[in-house]
Amino acid sequence: MSLIRVVSYNIHKGRSLGGRDSLSDLRLGLHGLRPDLMFLQEVQGRNEKHGSLHMQHEFLAAALHMDCAYGCNAVRDRTDHGNALLSRHPILSFENQDISDHRLEQRGLLHGVINVGGREVHCFVVHLGLFAASRIRQIEVMIERIRRMVPDGAPMLIAGDFNDWKDRLAPLFVQQLGVYEVFAHAPRTHGTMPKLRESIQQLRGVLRGESQQQIREAMFRRQSYHINQLGMEGTNNLMPAPRTFPSAFPWLRLDRIYQRGFAVRSARVLRGRPWTQLSDHAPILAELELP
User: Fold this and answer.
1) Is the dihedral of CA 168, 74, 269, 248 positive or negative?
2) What is the reported pLDDT for 201?
3) Where is the Endonuclease/exonuclease/phosphatase domain (predicted)?
4) How far apart are CA 186 and CA 211, in angstroms?
5) Cα–Cα nearest to 42, from 247, 280, 244
6) Residues of the chain with pLDDT > 90: what percent?
7) At what angle are helices 212-223 and 196-207 packed, to 10 degrees?
8) What values do phi and psi take at 226, rounded to 5?
């Protein structure tokens, strides 16, 4: 069994919400998370204006001793940016597919295959469009690629900035791909106060002489009936993904990690300092077990 720490983060081209160069501080913050796998968006591969912001994926990968793959999406006169996959496990192959839906937005889908304990895990880094119709078409392109290139039942991770603030895409992922958002299966959404019912359940377990592990397992079984799955007629019911944007006061639910073939040990949004000073998005950190 392999335990991996997965981070999904829109790094805002290495600048804070206020426009300050935050790449060096970002490196330190990510190092402290001890990530095994990172799905990064708005990464600058080229910056001829400011050398300190050039080749950000290689800068972070070297500092964290990780393999890296970069997919260039948006090309400007003296800069470009896109998605990046960083991994402590070997990256066996990768390809960036253009999924731009119109001329106003350049979007790409970075598909990498990594080796985790002898098993191939397919990883997709995404940053979807700002328009709902575009996002639907981009997801359809991704679904077609997955059906064509990913073996049935193979472990898979899809993470990034989905711009899906109304949570409309989750049913498509469940119906078409059998993947689920990590907070749907996490034993608890970290960073929130426990509900009164949960506190009472924990107290009852203590009074019965149960161990903390037994209490957590019992709570997980109860919560498994209330996860972000499909309802009777394909409707997506129950709790939405957590808020991640803007980082200083998260209000919109933009960022996600979807998984297939993993057990979710924990999932949380990282709020407060230093994250409010590093990007306009808050990162997501999940601990996943690959049986």
Assistant:
1) negative
2) 63
3) 7-281
4) 19
5) 280
6) 62
7) 140
8) -130, 45
Distance between CA atoms of residues 37 and 123, nearest Å: 10
Distance set, CA 134 to CA 80, 88, 103, 167 (Å): 22, 33, 12, 15
Averaged over 157-186, what is the pLDDT? 89
φ, ψ for residue 275 (rounded to 5)? -65, -30
Q: What pLDDT is attached to residue 207?
A: 66
pLDDT (tens digit per residue) in 53-71: 888 999 999 999 999 999 9
What's 2's DSSP letter?
E
| Helical axes 23-33 vs 56-64, angle rounded to 10° | 40
Domains and their CATH numbers in the chain:
2-188+240-290 (3.60.10.10)
Q: 252 with 243: CB under 8 angstroms?
A: yes
Q: Which of 247, 2, 279, 257 is nearest to 119 (CA)?
A: 2
What is the H or E stretch that residue 143 is in?
helix 132-149
- Angle subtended at Cα 167 by Cα 141 and Cα 84, rounded to the nearest 5 degrees: 50
Q: Tokens for 68, please give them.
A: 């890296």
Report which residue type is found at 94. F
The pTM of the full predicted model, rounded to 2 decimals, is 0.82
The C-alpha atoms of residue 195 and residue 136 are separated, in whole angstroms, by 35
- The DSSP code sequence of 154-174 is --EEEEEE---TT--SHHHHH
Question: Hey, what amino acid is at 175?
Answer: Q
Q: Are 45 and 80 in contact (CB under 8 A)?
A: yes
Residue 172's contacts (CB-CB under 8 Å, 6 or more residues apart) are: 136, 139, 143
Distance CA 127, CA 106 (A): 10
Q: Give the chain's end-to-end CA distance (angstroms, integer).
A: 5
Q: How far is CA 130 from the centre of its chain?
A: 18
User: Residue 134: helix, strand or coil by DSSP?
Assistant: helix
